[in-house]
Amino acid sequence: MTDCEIFSHIDHTLLKMTASWEDVENLCAEAIRFKTASVCVPPSYVRRIHDAYTDKVNICTVIGFPLGYSVASVKAFETEQALADGASEIDMVINIGDVKNGNFNNVLDEIKIIKTQCGQKILKVIVETCYLTDAEKICLCGIVTEAGADYIKTSTGFGTAGAAIADIELFKKHIGPNVKIKAAGGIKTREDMEAYINAGADRIGASSAVKVMAD
To answer: Which of 16, 92, 143, 170 is most buried when burial is the number of CB atoms within 10 A of its CB?
Structure first.
């Protein structure tokens, strides 16, 4: 797999709470240079990136991040604002509490609300696999599919663990044909990136991809 092929799957990510505008500018410059799939940034930077770079970068942002327990109406407002500011892709965190309480209809309804807002723009649903049983992961594959989301995503990168190849393989067996997979969290080497893509991940969320590949 060529470097260019790998970069085309990378959501070049900067979600640290200490991220400065200079850091964001560097991120965008790298994304343009290496033709990454997107930049994944905090919502507070979406408008500024859109104004500065217009269509030179594809902007992804996060909703309900990183804990996911905002109420659905708050996530809906966050999404509305992010899209108005210029985001083309939304990575939302589900409410893990609803999963643990068995309130799967709430999870389904929330994703449907956000997907309706996104329309033709991409919605990725972060399920935070490190907190889930395999049975919960399988159930969420069905929910993400039924809700019409575009991707199921493993992790925020802020949980107790990140992506695992076993989860990509599990997702592949249980998601619908129109749902893709994003792996994120702890993916730090070229070999990791290639392994996740080969396992079935269409996107890789990584903050160090460009540095690793450039080195």
So the answer is: 92
